[in-house]
Amino acid sequence: MAFLDRFRPPRVRDPNRRGNFPTDLWLKCSGCATLHYRPELETNLMVCPHCHYHFQLSARKRIASLADGGSFLEHDADLQSGDPLGFRDRSGYPERLRAARETSGEQEAYLYGEATLGGRPVILGAFDFSFLGGSMGCVVGEKIARTFELAGALHRPAIIVTVSGGARMQEGVLSLMQMAKTCAALDRFREARGFFISVLAHPTTGGVAASFAVLGDVILAEPGALIGFAGPRVIAQTVGQELPEGFQRAEYLLAHGILDRIVPRHNLREELGLLAEYLG
């Protein structure tokens, strides 16, 4: 019976044990419910090839899709948020910042720098929604102000792509101050005859939408972007009325004169290049 010793009993796999497999390889489209393989979607700039729904794009990939290859020179990459209020809810603010840095790979929710776009020098900035919802705290507000200051000093157009849930609650009234700060910096930039192109991606809400984001000399938006201060459900409950279909979406805002154009992501680089050439 020695041959039986060669057989081993089958190992029972622990159902609670998970392998080291990525959890986000497949994404379901919010527009048409199609299931997409993430690497293939990334090659299409995170745009659904069936219904053209625009998924969120990281700040760094956004800049890579717009700037000429190898032209982006980041500024103030080392600026990091502190904890001025000692804020704590279910966890401390420093812990949330560390988790956001690990998730996004960025130091903050906004990055900016010098770049060329179609061969024309510009100052380019972008928000990253994966970093605490793209919220604007003291560091983000400072970097936006410096975006306009750098553009003014170098006499270049400023281009900012926003995707944000608004002011960062963990910094309280200090985050609300950034609304005034960024608008003041933009006003000084305008006095120096600077040109600002604002690109609103989904979602652009709260204190970001209520400040510099809607003050561009030209305001563009991606298709279907949610743009507004408070959300539509909050507004509907406040006014006690049913809101129009598509309320606060880019198409609705374009029809009511808030936006200048809606530009699909694949066409944005060309559109910005033309604007920078004609008006910068």
Structural summary, described in words:
α6 links the parallel β7 (about 195-205) and β8. This protein has helices at about 40-45, 60-65, 95-105, 140-155, 170-190, 205-210, 230-240, 250-255, 265-280, and strands at about 25-30, 35, 75, 110-115, 120-125, 160-165, 195-205, 220, 225-230, 260. Strands 3, 4, 5, 6, 7, 8, 9 and 10 form an eight-stranded mixed sheet that branches. The chain contains nine helices and ten strands. The chain has two domains: about 20-55, no CATH class; about 55-280, 2-enoyl-CoA Hydratase, Chain A, domain 1. It has about 280 residues and is α/β, with parallel strands linked by helices. About 35% of the residues lie in helices and about 20% in strands.
Descriptive terms for the model:
280 residues, 2-enoyl-CoA Hydratase, Chain A, domain 1, eight-stranded mixed sheet
